[in-house]
Amino acid sequence: MSIKNFSPYVPRPATLVAKQKLSDFVTLFTFEQDNGKPLAHKPGQFVNLSIYGVGEAPFSISSPPEQKNVFELAVRKIGTVTQALHALEPGAKIGIRGPYGSFFPVQQFVGKDTLFVAGGLGYIPLRSLLRYQLRHREEFGRIIVLIGTRDPKERIFTEQIKRLGERGDVEVMETVDRGDETWQGNVGLITTLLPKVQIDAAGTFVAMVGPPIMYRFVIADCRKIGIPADQIYVSLERKMKCGLGKCGHCQINDLNACIDGPVFRYTDIEAYQEAI
Ligand SMILES: Cc1cc2nc3c(=O)[nH]c(=O)nc-3n(C[C@H](O)[C@H](O)[C@H](O)COP(=O)(O)OP(=O)(O)OC[C@H]3O[C@@H](n4cnc5c(N)ncnc54)[C@H](O)[C@@H]3O)c2cc1C
Ligand code: FES
Domain range holding 22? Predict the structure, then answer.
């Protein structure tokens, strides 16, 4: 047996089948694994993507778990790997390891209301959970989606979010930190949206992904209105290498964000205030 058959560090080949620009810097990439198998991930998990000869980086899976043949990643062009990825055209080969990490415990959310809180690129992993819930809409209570972006030009999935708001069975509210001449909506931090929704605190689960500074304020507001701490889930991104709990790059005290996270129940990390 060659090392390829058992080393967890060897990526599996996949093919880029489509790309769609979401904003000036963010593109949605659709991939198909060359082995023909589905990725079999859970909402909130990530993959390590390699561009051969360039490098590897972790990205959240944005498609829902039941999407059989293809999976989607939405990636911001920021450095070496992401620039090389943006330069690829459909048909190009990449490598994939994973899916890795913890996930949103969607079965616990059944019969309850879900409050999504997405800051910036945080909408990317939340979209996997949201689309799962929409496919099984009758199993869930209210779905409330709060989205905050720095400025209107950085908004992503704008068409999909517009359609989401038009469905009638999802409550969607958006805000931007700074408006411009194109923006007619709410201006202010994402915390300004929370008082605008009536929430049944005891019956609501929170799924939150965004910049760490957002967590501190949104969690405090959620607790103030009575949402139990063990019903709040957040995703913590750290610099990652192996994705397997081996290299220590992603440590948060005694936890490894790659295997114990990235999705954490708030009560499990409440003690690590510096990490949140
Ligand atoms: C679990 C997990 C999920 C992720 N999901 C996504 C995702 O869905 N989409 C996505 O676009 N990114 C995501 N990221 C972030 C992504 O992995 C990093 O941005 C990665 O470093 C990009 O690799 P690169 O080689 O292009 O950049 P690098 O060459 O490694 O970095 C270039 C420069 O940008 C800085 N930098 C790197 N990341 C960031 C950042 N996030 N903000 C500000 N500066 C940064 C670096 O410090 C460096 O100075 C995720 C990270 C983790 C840990
Ligand atoms: S990325 Fe290596 S231990 Fe988490």
Answer: 3-100
17 lies in some domain: yes
Mutating to test ligand 1, I would choose from 28, 52, 78, 97 the residue with most ligand atoms within 8 A of its C-beta, which is 78
Half-sphere exposure in the Cβ direction for 46 (13 Å, CA): 30
Q: What is the pLDDT of residues 96-144, one digit of tens each?
A: 999 999 999 999 999 999 999 999 999 999 999 999 999 999 999 999 9
Residue 260 is assigned to a structural domain of this protein: no
Do the domain assignments include residue 200?
Answer: yes
Number of domains making up the chain: 2
Instruction: For residue 265, tell me if it sits in a domain.
Output: no
CA of 64 to the centre of ligand 2 (A): 25
CATH of residue 118's domain is 3.40.50.80
State the pLDDT confidence band at 237, using cuts at 50, 70 and 90: confident
Closest residue by Cα to atom 13, ligand 1, is 59
| Same structural domain, 115 and 222 | yes
- Cα separation of 215 and 256, whole Å? 19
As a whole number of angstroms, the distance between CA 186 and CA 14 comes to 41
Q: In the chain, pLDDT over 90 holds for what percent of residues?
A: 89
Nearest to 238 by CA among 268, 212, 199, 267: 212
CA of 23 to the centre of ligand 1 (A): 17
Q: Whose CA is nearest to atom 10 of ligand 1?
A: 75
In contact, 97 and 12? CB cutoff 8 Å? yes
Q: What is the pTM of this model?
A: 0.94
Give residue 4's pLDDT: 54
